[in-house]
Fold these 4 entries.
Entry 1:
Amino acid sequence: MIAAFSVAPGGAGESVSEYVADAVRIVRESGLPNETNAMFTNVEGDWDEVLGVIKACVMKVAEEAPRVDVVIKIDYRPAAVNPIRSKVQAVEERLARG
């Protein structure tokens, strides 16, 4: 499965990069395939691994913030092989064909 998620302290001011960096560090240290963009971090693995990583990110942000906003979107497709890369690759191939 792939989960696209974001975590941020509730009611945060202009910049949340410090909190986001703490969460992304946890994702990267998990060893699971992942990528981060301007809005979300995508992480790939089984249910327990992915949800465990997301929970760890939420708990890390909660250490400094009394409230944490979380957004999660899950693509559950058990037969998919390397979906975090293959989904993007399929789009890029179509774009290359014109």
Entry 2:
Amino acid sequence: MADSRQVTMKGNPLPLEGKDVQVGQTAPDFSLTGIDMKTVTLGDTSGVRIFSIVPSLDTPVCDAQTRRFNEAAAELGNVTIYTVSRDLPFAQKRWCGAAGVDKVVTLSDYKDGNFGLAWGVMIEPLKIFARAVYVVDADNKVTYGQLVPEVAEHPDYDAALAAAKAASA
């Protein structure tokens, strides 16, 4: 069931479906697929995590976002960065190899969109994700969240990275 939340894509409004994840709440659980085709849940992750959510790795802004977080991973130490999309795991693996991305973990929600619904980033009419970034601390609390209002725009990388550094301090 769609709610009143929405984002725009090139100025056109698109409704979001799912929960509205807020800073301070416990991170919603999920079931995603890794590039090795194994299931990954929130419980399979630990420590401070950045969840970088993108519509598709094969678009310019998503490509740039994932590359930016991959570069930042080295300076974050014990923070794990996950890029989550509905791209097939095979496509994610191909993209990472071609882009030289080796520090970000890509996870796919291609099966049923449960992550998109649990985290409130499902663009209902297109069945892809809105652009968003969430930081989750070692206690599974959301310490930072940004749902980017316009899908074609970049997230605030500096704010997300600062939140991850603060959560890991």
Entry 3:
Amino acid sequence: MISYSVLRRSVLVALAVGIPVIVAFMASAETAAPPNAVVYFINVKDGDTVTSPFKVQFGLTGMGVAPAGVEKPNTGHHHLVIDTTLSPEELKQPIPADAKHVHFGGGQTETMVTLPPGPHTLQLVLGDWSHIPFNPPIVSPVITVTVK
């Protein structure tokens, strides 16, 4: 028969080891995408010529928009990916925040973009409450705009 102190110690060790594993798993877990969710550009399309700065409006059907940090079913927030794409591995991790990965964690659905003259690629990626893309990813087609 196991003594109370041995049992207690075993439970404490299991908790000490298990809780960090559970927290790490939850922090990196992908949220399932609702069926038929689509993210798209409303006012710019592939091949457009624009003058910088220019407005970009984000469209979303099949789910709602909520700020980052708000865990609510079937909601997410926008990320604008400029002049790059996310690799399959990056689509399973929090989206970086830099000049090429612009976060709209406040639930914004449009922005003004300033880019130098020349061709540029744009893509929308919907992130969950923790900035991780959904599974499967909810992404727009990559479009190319030319800044004159």
Entry 4:
Amino acid sequence: MLFGQDRERLRGFYCEVWRARCRGEALDPLQEQIARVIEQHPEYHALLENPERALGKEYLPELGETNPFLHMGMHLGLREQVDTDRPAGIRALYQRLLVARGDTHELEHEMMECLAEMLWQAQKTGAPPDEEMYLKCLKSLEKRL
């Protein structure tokens, strides 16, 4: 995990990466990955340009709020899963879905629903994430396309 449980450090890192990108500064590979995700989410730019607001904000799903840091982190997590093919088979599945879907960003949003469900179930039950359930959910996306 990038910063463990230190929410403020993680959020601050996103803000620093965005500030560096806007200034045209050189980024290391991880920063470059994060900057690309941020670029795909212009709705978060103003937040990231205001670190004081970004660091302390609470996002309450019961009020319909989306946590932008969780959202962007899930994009990064999915990309890492595809790059490392973990769980096994996700890379090939992603490639098939991408051919059918045609839009990487929208496909990631669809896949994130499955990822979120798997993580929620693991948190709810206290069990490790169920990769079989996750892959089954992802495979169901093929049937919808």
